[in-house]
Amino acid sequence: MFIRIIPFSKEKDLNIILQLLFLLFFLFFTPLITFSADDPAPKTHNTSQNFYEKGRDFVSKGNWVNAIKSFRHAIQQDQQDHKAYNMLGYSLRQSGKISEAIRAYDRALDLKANYEEALEYRAIAYAKLGKKEKAMQDYKKLLSIKSSFADGLKEKIYRHLQR
Question: 57-161 belongs to which homologous superfamily?
Answer without folding.
Answer: Tetratricopeptide repeat domain (1.25.40.10)
